[in-house]
Amino acid sequence: MRQLLYTAFLLLAGSLVQAQQQPQQHAVSNASNAAVKKGNQQYTKGDYAKAEEDYKKALEKDPANTKAQYNLGNALMMQKKFADAAKVYDGVGKEADSSLQTNSNYNKGLALARDKKLPEAIDAFKQSLRYAPNDDNARENLQKAINDLKQQQNQNQNPQQNPKQQQKPQNNQQKQQQQPQSNSKLTPQQAEQLLRNLSENEKQLQRQLQKQKGNLTQTEKDW
């Protein structure tokens, strides 16, 4: 039984594979089979570390034992050794039957996704679907991995700015507004004209004051 990606801890595809299920033309040695059987017993008990050791012993005796390879990947997955599990599933070669290859690619996709390697996980799920095009779980996990990768890429392209960084342009703009505009310089001609205007204004003001004094003097004479 298999579960969807990220929904509780996964029950791996195909669970355990018994060594005696190996096709006759690919029969493994009795010693390797015995080690696989012992590893399966440990796996069933939940002792995945010991199961890992037994599967490795089986592979030492017969490196071509694809069932031991697959079960080793399962034991690593249950220990959350996702990167190691993905490498082990890669070792299930083309000589394995199509069902085992399908399950290995599917579990490899789960391991890679758990290890945050989404592009590689997508490739693994695609490979699994090549062997089993009607596998709904593989198709749904593939779509989820694609969506998660797009979301990750969008976040990388549009990183959230630090609030302090957002405030800096506003603060700079406020400072610019508060500062007087002193960058505009007068030309010599403009400065001379400004002085003339000021002098003329001063003269007009003096004439007005003198006129006011004359009016006050006349009023006193009338009295």
Automatic annotation (TrEMBL):
Q: Is Signal tagged as a keyword?
A: yes
Gene3D superfamilies attached to this UniProt entry: Tetratricopeptide repeat domain
**SMART domains from the xrefs?**
TPR
Disordered as annotated region, ranges? 152-223
Signal peptide location in the record?
1-19
Polar residues biased stretches: 182-198, 214-223
Q: Which domain of life is it from?
A: Bacteria
Q: What is this protein called?
A: Tetratricopeptide repeat protein
Query: Which of UniProt's keywords are assigned here?
Result: Repeat, Signal, TPR repeat
> What organism does the record attribute this protein to?
Deminuibacter soli
| Ranges: TPR repeats | 32-65, 102-135
Which Pfam family, just one, is annotated for this protein?
Answer: TPR_8
- Point to the regions of Low complexity compositional bias: 152-181
